[in-house]
Amino acid sequence: MSTIDINDADDPAAELATGPLDGIEIRTLHSADEMIELGEVFQQVWGSLTQLVTIEILMAVTHSGGYVSAAYETRGGGERMLGASVAVLARHHGQPALHSHITGLLPGARRSGLGRAMKIHQRDWAAANDIDWIVWTFDPLVRRNAWFNISVLGAEAHEYLPSFYGKMTDSINAGDDSDRLLVAWAVDDASPGPADPAEVVAKGHLLVPTPEDIVALRRTDASEVARWRSETREALQTALDGGGRIVGFTADGEYVVDPNPQSSPSDGSA
Predict the structure, then answer these.
(1) How far apart are the first and last CA of the chain?
(2) Mean pLDDT of 216-229
(3) What's the whole-model pTM score?
């Protein structure tokens, strides 16, 4: 789950930046005091009155070799945490993986390129620790996250997971089913990125639309949210379970699905 917003200028064809952002340091965390601050940031990001991840779990993750990181802004001789990410050791396709459970940025830090920088930090950490995949889930109806994950990072959607977290009560997800797409990012891919969305659309693949802003819609029209959820679930789950593949995400907010990739010519997409 994530609340990463990308910079408006992010281009899916652009090379992923690897250099540090001015005034920002991303580093791994290990102490209980750091985990307390991380927990407070997550509560602000999701508008939750309760902890999204307990301090005990965070300490267990880092102590057992998992990944816990945060981005800090240095200002006036002090520093402030702007966002954080937590990932547990896992397996994917029988290979070592990180399951990135939660990543979030405070509202003022979004659309700055920091979300991309945090994912690059996570990938570099995984590479240094001989991990082959990073996997994570996101709400398939959140258009900005679909664009970021598929068209900016080049992650592949591998599975549709209906009601993955059961009932959720935070201010972002409350009142909706917790369906998720599982995406996978190959750590050893030096230049990740899918095919140009315009090219794959031109091949006549299935287009599955998304709402412009599902989070805002949850506050105003529950029946419309339910309709979007049902129709998107039917389209994407049927395609993926049937051997189809999501090959892109358009700037207009549509998944590009190849329902029969076995018979399609290779397009070189990641």
Answers:
(1) 22
(2) 91
(3) 0.80
Query: HSE of 106 in the Cβ direction (CA atoms, 13 Å)?
Result: 16
Residue 101, classified by CB atoms within 10 Å of its CB into exposed (0-12), middle (13-18) or buried (19+), is buried
- Alpha carbon 47 to its chain centroid, in Å, reads 18
Question: What's at 242, amino acid-wise?
Answer: G
Please give the sequence-ordered ranges of beta strands (E in DSSP) within 51-191, or none if there are none: 67-75, 78-92, 95-105, 133-138, 156-161, 180-186
Q: What pLDDT digit, counting tens, does each position of 138-181 carry?
A: 999 999 989 989 998 899 999 999 988 776 655 455 556 789 99
Secondary structure (3-state) at 167: coil
190: phi then psi, degrees, rounded to nearest 5 = -70, -25
Write the DSSP assignment of 21-47 as a string of letters. Answer: PTTEEEEE--SHHHHHHHHHHHHHHHT
H or E, element range at 218: helix 214-218
Nearest to 70 by CA among 6, 143, 125: 125
Q: What is the arrangement of strands in the sheet containing 254-258, beginning at the earlier edge strand?
A: 206-209, 254-258, 245-249
The residues, ordered by sequence, that sit 6+ positions from 131 with a Cβ below 8 Å of its Cβ are 89, 96, 97, 98, 187
Q: Return all residues near 30 (Cβ < 8 A) that are at least 6 apart.
A: 62, 68
A 10 A CB-CB count for 250 gives: 19
Is 127 in contact with 90 (CB distance < 8 Å)?
no
CA atoms within 13 A on the CB side of 42: 25
**68 and 62 Cβ atoms separated by less than 8 Å:** yes
d(CA 219, CA 225): 10
Token representation of residue 180:
């998720």
Phi, psi of 55, rounded to the nearest 5 degrees = -60, -40
Residue type, 270: A
